[in-house]
Design goal:
- The chain has 306 residues and is α/β, with parallel strands linked by helices.
- It has 9 helices and 9 strands.
- A 7-stranded parallel beta sheet has the order 6-5-4-3-7-8-9, with helices on both faces. A two-stranded antiparallel ribbon has the order 1-2.
- Strand 1 and strand 2 form a beta hairpin.
- Helix 4 runs parallel beside helix 5 and helix 4 packs parallel to helix 9.
- It is globular.
- The N and C termini lie far apart (103 Å).
Length: 306
């Protein structure tokens, strides 16, 4: 046994010291536990998400970091600067909605129609220009409205033909960096900001496409129509290309490359019909329009595509 007085002490004092240390340790442990629990409640790093960290923002349920967002009504009521809101996505959604509403309202009673595409660079008096005039005239005489992009070139020519045929001439314009403006032969013109809203009108209110030689815009509209028919988004929708000399190389490439390499099916080529005669082109789309209005061969004729 040690006789060092510093290592000895009364039993009561030792017990008191041990009790004090145990109390301090217990208090510290409890405090740390409470602090950790508070941290978890406050949304700090944790292993299990705390229910208190959930926020609802309209139909959204947000958790963890995603829950730290400003309330919608506060964002709405705060002033950020003059005209700031009109440059935000919510405002763009309203603009997009207005374009669809305006287009649907203007074209709802149009009746059977055909969309005619072709280059804006077609020169008046050229062969392609005169072909477009003849196409527009014959469509009108067959009782079909003529829809174009409303611009110059082949679009202008088709609208001119529709007027000469005493039919309905429609132009669907688009906002571009180089202003084209609506051509003078358009009777009913609608200008769009967004390509996709405009493209919807081309398809929804047409029973077929006639496509004259053109550039990127014409090709865009042509291939989109092919995709819609191939995927059965639209039915009984003839696509007629005018100008075998112009279109044959493209059709040949589709055959020898896309079909040959399995990128598309052989039957997909049947989506296209290539002719030189405007009368034949009109005949093909008139037949297609009849099939669309009365696909089963019985019952009343329908209106525009739903």
């Amino acid at each position: 046994m040690s006789t060092d007085p510093q290592q000895q002490g009364p039993p009561a004092a030792a017990g008191k010291t041990a009790g004090k240390a145990a109390g301090q340790l217990a208090g510290k442990t409890a405090g740390e536990a409470a602090g950790q629990a508070a941290a978890r409640t406050n949304g700090e790093t944790r292993d299990i998400p705390a229910p208190a960290g959930i926020r609802h923002k309209g139909p959204l349920e947000l958790r963890r970091k995603a829950a730290k967002v400003t309330m919608s009504d506060r964002t709405l009521l705060d002033t950020k600067g003059p005209g700031q809101f009109v440059h935000t996505d919510p405002w763009r959604v309203l603009r997009i909605q207005s374009e669809f509403v305006e287009g649907f309202g203007a074209l709802a009673d149009l009746g059977p129609a055909v969309s005619v595409f072709g280059s804006a660079r077609t020169v008046p008096g050229s062969l392609n220009y005169e072909l477009a005039v003849e196409v527009g005239r014959q469509l009108a005489e067959a009782g079909l409205a003529v829809i174009t992009g409303g611009g110059p070139g082949s679009m202008e020519a088709a609208n001119k033909g529709a007027v000469q045929g005493n039919g309905v001439s429609v132009g669907l314009g688009i906002e571009l960096p180089f202003e084209q403006g609506m051509n003078q032969w358009v009777d009913l013109g609608i200008n769009f900001r967004y390509f996709f809203a405009r493209k919807t009108m081309f398809v929804k209110y047409a029973q077929g496409f006639i496509v004259l030689p053109g550039g990127l815009g014409t090709l865009d509209e042509l291939f989109e129509a092919m995709v819609l028919v191939q995927t059965r988004k639209v039915t009984s929708f003839p696509i007629v290309l005018i100008g075998t000399a112009f279109w044959s190389p493209m059709v040949e490439w589709i055959q020898t490359t896309l079909v040959a390499e399995g990128m598309m099916s052989e039957e997909d080529l049947d989506l296209l019909q290539v002719v030189d005669d405007p009368a034949l082109a009109v005949e093909l789309v008139v037949e297609g329009a009849a099939r669309h209005r009365n696909p089963n061969g019985t019952g009343p004729a329908g209106g525009s595509r739903g």
